TrEMBL record:
<protein>
    <submittedName>
        <fullName>IclR family transcriptional regulator</fullName>
    </submittedName>
</protein>
<feature type="region of interest" description="Disordered">
    <location>
        <begin position="1"/>
        <end position="21"/>
    </location>
</feature>
<dbReference type="InterPro" id="IPR029016">
    <property type="entry name" value="GAF-like_dom_sf"/>
</dbReference>
<dbReference type="InterPro" id="IPR014757">
    <property type="entry name" value="Tscrpt_reg_IclR_C"/>
</dbReference>
<dbReference type="InterPro" id="IPR005471">
    <property type="entry name" value="Tscrpt_reg_IclR_N"/>
</dbReference>
<dbReference type="InterPro" id="IPR036390">
    <property type="entry name" value="WH_DNA-bd_sf"/>
</dbReference>
<dbReference type="GO" id="GO:0003700">
    <property type="term" value="F:DNA-binding transcription factor activity"/>
</dbReference>
<feature type="domain" description="HTH iclR-type">
    <location>
        <begin position="30"/>
        <end position="90"/>
    </location>
</feature>
<feature type="compositionally biased region" description="Pro residues">
    <location>
        <begin position="1"/>
        <end position="10"/>
    </location>
</feature>
<keyword id="KW-0804">Transcription</keyword>
<keyword id="KW-0238">DNA-binding</keyword>
<dbReference type="GO" id="GO:0045892">
    <property type="term" value="P:negative regulation of DNA-templated transcription"/>
</dbReference>
<dbReference type="InterPro" id="IPR050707">
    <property type="entry name" value="HTH_MetabolicPath_Reg"/>
</dbReference>
<feature type="domain" description="IclR-ED">
    <location>
        <begin position="91"/>
        <end position="275"/>
    </location>
</feature>
<dbReference type="GO" id="GO:0003677">
    <property type="term" value="F:DNA binding"/>
</dbReference>
<dbReference type="InterPro" id="IPR036388">
    <property type="entry name" value="WH-like_DNA-bd_sf"/>
</dbReference>
<dbReference type="Pfam" id="PF09339">
    <property type="entry name" value="HTH_IclR"/>
</dbReference>
Amino acid sequence: MLPNLPPPGYAAPLAPEDHPDQLRGDPDYMLTLARGLHVIRAFGTRRHPQTAAELARRAGLPRAVVQRCLHTLILLGIAEQHGRQYILTPRILGLGYAYFSSTPFVSLAQPVLEELSASVNETCALAIMEGHEMLYLARSEVNRLLATSMGLGSRLPAYCTSIGRVLLAQLSEPALARYFAAIDLQPYTEFTLTTEARLRAELARIREQDYAVVDQELELNVRAISVPVRSASGKACGAVNVSVKAARVPLERLTGEFLAPMRQAVARIGEFLAA
């Protein structure tokens, strides 16, 4: 029994350090624009319409401010209102496409992911840390694993995913302390680690071995292994994972069979990064 299991579609509040009001003292800072972008981010990866109250809670903004932002987004054709609920329109994809089309790193990494996926015959993905979550940049899918389809730009919590953990393990102690102070460690399955002490112990082990394995902590019957992508300077700029069905692939295969080709793949992807 999981008394603290988040309700379906639950989306955690956005990171406090990303709140748009923090820079309002800058005379050239456009607070209204920043708040509007923040509301867009508050939609997250949820697949169903949301109310202004839900968006205000996640964005950490007054409901009246959120409603004005939504009104503007509707006039611009970026959002639609259906009764008390709001959704983004396909027009928002233009913002994401502008990033992916202007970032050679993603397009260069995609063929490497596809080769890795073909080699291990499993689904692979490249992601980075963005705020307190991992953000998918590229993906090569063999079999759909998660109940919710994860497309480019999708987000998942860092503490219970292999990519998130391998990147959390790279943080300095002050940054890691800020992370734990800001997030709510909710259980997604009965296997999810939800105490800071246990997670810190796991991150120490990940830091030493330079890879992370997460077994059914985000979703039952899904396990994954991740390896960091490093620039020439050694900085971890992202990570690659291989995800498998737990009923089909035993844990020992993740390290015994997948780890070596994954390390070769991240070394190639790292060559695309500036030092």
